[in-house]
Design a protein that fits this description.
This protein has four helices and twelve strands, in the order ββββββββαβαααβββ. It has 239 residues and is mainly β. Bound molecules: S-adenosylmethionine.
Length: 239
């Protein structure tokens, strides 16, 4: 069997999400109620290519971790879930540094619309950076894709969720920015993202007074670890 197989792949679509930087994006899909869309491109932007897709409630998105491709890959990785100390084989993890840089996420399909001549699949639950190239779209087929008694190794359970509090200034800001059409569902998105505690695993092990920032929509959200969990301190227009 030749080990020299290679294949040229091309984006069939691009994913548009509120996640403007990698830090803060949930580690897997379905953890945060986040909405966005997949915009078909080139010859794939054809109504025939999605004919019948509306009969499915969920889709598999196959994509490229395009922002990590330049760093290449290693045979072992340090999964954040194991505290960043223990090494596992890259194929035993969902690491974003992979031989072909391919990710897969199941997302909920809300609708198929046309916007400015582009076919857009309205989705939710994705764990993708804004602008991620999509290399394939497949329907989720419950009878074969859902395996309730499957063993999930180190990732058997969803990550722990932390309480999220807004200081009074951030309360007023999230009300103001959340009322804008360009940042819908803002409060729920901030709560969902920060409840995952996006910090690197080694930071969680000790007291941490650092000020953190995540970029959602066109905003920078500043937060830190407080006595009662995650404290949102300020929202302001992104740099
Ligand atoms: N569900 C997919 C899988 O299992 O293949 C992705 C899991 S991976 C752990 C999820 C992380 O990928 C996100 O938290 C984010 O940091 C990173 N990510 C998302 N889109 C990316 C992109 N376009 N380039 C590089 N990293 C990306």
């Amino acid at each position: 069997m030749s080990a020299s197989f290679s294949n040229q792949i091309t984006a069939v679509a691009y994913c548009r999400t509120p996640y403007k930087q990698k830090f803060g994006i949930p580690r897997q899909p379905g953890l945060v109620d986040v909405h966005g869309y997949v915009e078909l491109t080139g010859p794939f932007n054809d109504p025939d290519s999605v004919r019948g897709l509306e009969q499915y409630s969920h889709l598999w998105l196959l994509f490229c971790f395009h922002e990590n491709l330049a760093q290449g890959w290693k045979t072992t990785v340090r999964p954040p879930r194991l505290g960043g100390n223990e090494k596992l084989g890259v194929f035993a993890t969902r690491s974003t540094f992979r031989p072909n840089g391919i990710g897969q996420s199941v997302v909920k399909l809300h609708g198929i619309v046309r916007r400015g001549g582009k076919i857009c699949l309205e989705i939710s639950g994705m764990d993708l950076l804004d602008g991620t190239p999509i290399i394939d779209i497949k329907p989720y087929i419950p009878f074969s894709d859902a395996i309730p008694d499957a063993i999930g190794g180190m990732a058997q359970e969803a990550p722990v969720q932390y309480p999220v509090h807004f200081c009074s200034e951030a309360e007023a800001q999230v009300a103001r920015y959340g009322a804008r059409p360009q940042s819908p569902n803002l409060r729920a998105l901030i709560e969902g993202v920060l409840a995952q505690d996006p910090r690197p695993a080694y930071k969680k092990a000790k007291d941490d007074a650092k000020l953190y920032q995540v970029a959602l929509y066109d905003l920078d959200i500043f937060w830190q670890i407080g006595p009662k969990g995650i404290e949102v301190l300020e929202l302001k227009p992104g740099m």
